[in-house]
Each structure stands twice: as structure tokens, then as C-alpha cells.
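Page 42, continued from yesterday. The earlier attempt failed because a stray header line got pasted into the input along with the sequence. Redoing it now with the clean sequence only.
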Amino acid sequence: MINSNTKTIEALNILLADYHMHYQKLRNFHWNITGSHFFELHVKFEEFYEDAKLKIDEIAERILTLRGNPISNFSVYLDLSNIKEANTNLKDHEMVTAVLKDHEILLKQLKIVTATAEDAKDDGTLDITGTYIGEIEKTSWMLNAWNQKK
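This time it went through. C-alpha cells are written below.
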């Protein structure tokens, strides 16, 4: 028997890979931030990666709820993710710009997940994606406002 949520599970696994790459990038930025914005961005990147860590777990658990298997190998995340690694020597505004680009990628994948969940009449996944989209949009607005300092 074919799982009626197969497309949603596949889209969620890509989202899971995207969030893993985003999480690691945020850790990179947290560890490697320097300069006059160190204190504010060091704390903010930690806040962001802690949030990403929670979302990673929620996405994996949603995949399991749909009777799928969440991918769990980093080598697969590297291949599957739409988000790519970042250098460790970026400047503060470059880091924020990179996070904003990740947000665009995450939003695009979230919309794909939303479309597959709508087709499957999967309200549980829709609840998750709607919340994540709203949070990313708000955070992006704030980061864009901060990035205007340059």
C-alpha cells in the first residue's frame, strides 16, 4: 500500500535537510562572529540556532507521524538541501545577508510542503508550516531592518 502522504514526507525531508544546513550555518556564525556587533549577533545567532534545533525535531517527528522515515545522515543533508554551507570568515552584515537568503530558501520549501499537505488534506502539517512561515517572515523583517545599518 502506498502512503497517501508520500509527497508530503518527501517535501518534509527536504525541509529537514534545509533546516539542518541552516542550523549548522547559524552555529558557524555564532562561533565566528567578530567586530563591533559581536555581542548582539553572537546572542541572536544562538537564539536562531536553538529555534532551528527545535524545528528539526518537530519536522522529524511530523515525518514519523505520517508514517515516514526522517533522513538522518549528514551526507544526505548535504546532497538534498537547497541551503549550502557558508565560509567562516564572513563579516557581520554578510552573515545576516546569508541568513536572509536561507530564509528565502526555507520559505520556498515550506510553500512546497504546504502545497503537498493541502493536496493530502493534512491539517497537522499545515499547522506547522503556517507557524514556521509567519515566524520566518517576521524574523526576516527584523534582520532586514538591522541590515540597513550598513
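Notes: DSSP finds five helices and no strands in the chain.
Reminder to self: strip header lines before submitting.
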